[in-house]
Structure formats: C-alpha cells, structure tokens
Design goal:
This protein is mainly α. 51% of the residues lie in helices and 11% in strands. One of its GO terms (biological process) is phosphatidylethanolamine biosynthetic process.
Length: 327
C-alpha cells in the first residue's frame, strides 16, 4: 500500500505477523491507496509522522556518535523543524500528557493489517530460537552470554505468556517503540500546551496489546541511550514512573479515548485506572524480556559499538525485579 506525503510516496507492506514496514521512497506516479492516504494524512495532522526510520538502532547510534543520516523525507520535513526528546523529557508532566494523547490517537487508528496479536510472542519465539544457535568466541562476551542463558529464558517466557494471557488488554494498532528517540519536539512549539510532539519510526508497529505499548514506554523512562562512554547507555531504575506519574499518563490517555468509550462514572473511571495499572505493569515485563532478547542477538550481528550484552543483562535484571514487585 502506498501513501503520498510531503510530495513523496512511501509504500507500506506487512508480513504475515502484521509487522509494518516502510519501503524506500518511490515516485508519485507509481500511485497510492486512497484509503491509506486518508488514514495516514489524518494521523500526521494529529502528530504522528509517517516515515521509515532508524528506531532503536538510531537511538543507540546517536548515543555513540555513529548515527545514520536521516532519510530524505525527514531531511526536508522534520529535521530542520524539530529535535528528538531526551530521556529526562519523558518525566515532564506536560510532555507525558501529550505522549499519552498521541499514543491514544495512534491506538485508535484502524489499519488494514492482520489484527491478530501475533507479533509479540511470535517475535520473541523467533529470537529465542536464534539465540539457542549463537556462539561467542571472545571470552568476555561468552561469560556474559552464559550468565544470560542461566536465566532459563525458554521456561521464563512460558511463565510470562501464562501471566499475560490471564491479563486483559485490548488489541490495538501499537507503535511498540515509544522511546524518547522516536518522539520529536517540534521547533517553535515548545511553549504550546498541546501538539508540540510527533511520533516517528514505525519499524516495529503492529497490532499488539495496549499494555505492551504503554508499559514499554514506561520502561524507557529508565534508559538513557546518549551516555558518552561504554557501555553507551545508562540505566536509572529509580526513574521508572511512580504510581502518580502512571495515573497522570493513564488519565490523559483515557480522556482522549473517551469519545470511543462514552461517558463513565467516577467509580467506573477509578476501576478502569486500577485495571490499567495492573495491565501496564505486567506488560512492562514483556518489554524487558523482548528488548533483552533483541539485545543478545544484536551483540552477535551488530557492527555498532554498544554494550549489547550489558544492556540485555540490565533488562533481564529489571524484568525479575519488576516481576517480584508487580506479580
């Protein structure tokens, strides 16, 4: 499916798991789908940018000074007019409020893709299979890898699946990587009470559980990928949002969603908030698990200088600590 945006036509396609990809720009004469054109232009007006991107790779590369050039669309449309958020920005109440609103709008989009939530565990199962075939020749890496394998990740993922299957969470169209590097602060809008942010980079987008998208975002409050020395990230677990910060986010998310849900009583609102707190914090476990597996694989295949195995260790340590607190 192709959509025209900023005088450039970009093609969307998805695989059988409903994972969305963006291809390289093509000429406008090659056409586009009118349905998607309307949907995505509407999304852009609401602060969701449509472009391919570097996502988590880009966040890491920017932190190590190895960042890629922005693609042509971003060079002409986004780069001169914006900056990416910093990790500490996520804790700003006004910014957190707007991220909640943008995410709620994103979740309200109806996309012509497979709506079965296969992406999360389908991807993690594939990662685990690839990890089972990995070897490391360097002694330091091998020691770290063996330490990670001692967690019995296959069994732990079965336990996680059982927990999440018992945790109600709506299936919506998710971004799946709402971290500071994928949120632009639009230049000239810094003082605006709303519409100063734009979500970018859809490489992980798919139909998935709402709890994962929000829980993953909360986990990103902890990780700074612009740390200037090895391992090129800094984890600050104390920055995970407090109950009040989570409720602040949830209430603004729900206020944007109220048109789709209808009016609720005070008692119903309080019940929904408590249920979402449980949902989100359980799915935050899946965020730690997912990116932990991802990082083990990157340690083998990536050419970027980054402490991938250290990062994986950090994510799994956070997983078990969070599991002890919320489950």
């Amino acid at each position: 499916t192709c959509i025209e945006l900023a005088q450039t036509t970009i093609c969307w396609y998805c695989n059988n798991n409903g994972i969305v990809y963006l291809s390289s720009p093509v000429t406008s004469e090659e056409g586009y789908c009118a349905f998607m054109l309307g949907k995505l232009k509407s999304a852009v007006r609401e602060g969701v940018a449509v472009r391919g991107g570097t996502g988590r790779y880009g966040a890491i590369q920017r932190g190590t000074g190895q960042g890629p050039r922005w693609p042509p669309l971003a060079d002409t449309a986004a780069r001169p007019q914006s900056r990416r958020l910093r990790t500490e920005d996520l804790r700003d109440p006004d910014i957190s409020k707007e991220i909640a609103v943008k995410m709620s709008r994103f979740h309200g989009m109806v996309m012509p893709f497979n709506k079965e939530p296969k992406w999360l565990f389908g991807t993690m199962e594939r990662y685990l299979k690839q990890i089972s075939e990995l070897t490391f020749s360097e002694e330091g890496q091998l020691k770290k890898f063996n330490h990670l394998k001692a967690y019995n990740l296959q069994q732990e993922m079965r336990s996680l699946r059982e927990l999440l299957e018992a945790t109600p969470s709506p299936v919506v169209f998710c971004h799946n990587d709402v971290q500071e590097g994928n949120i632009l602060l639009l230049a000239g809008h810094e003082a605006s009470p709303s519409d100063k942010l734009m979500l970018i980079d859809f490489e992980y987008s798919s139909y998935n559980y709402r709890g994962f998208d929000i829980g993953n975002h909360f986990c990103e409050w902890v990780y700074n990928y612009t740390h200037g020395s090895w391992p090129y990230y800094k984890a600050s677990p104390e920055n995970y949002p407090s109950r009040q910060q989570q409720l602040h986010f949830i209430r603004h998310y729900l206020s944007e969603d109220s048109g789709r849900r209808g009016d609720t009583t005070h008692e119903e609102q309080a019940r929904i908030e408590e249920e979402m707190l449980t949902e989100i914090n359980r799915f935050a476990l899946a965020s730690h698990f997912f990116w932990g597996l991802w990082s083990i694989l990157q340690a083998k295949i990536s050419t970027i200088e980054f402490g991938y195995l250290d990062y994986a260790q950090s994510r799994f340590e956070a997983y078990f600590q969070h599991k002890a607190q919320c489950c």
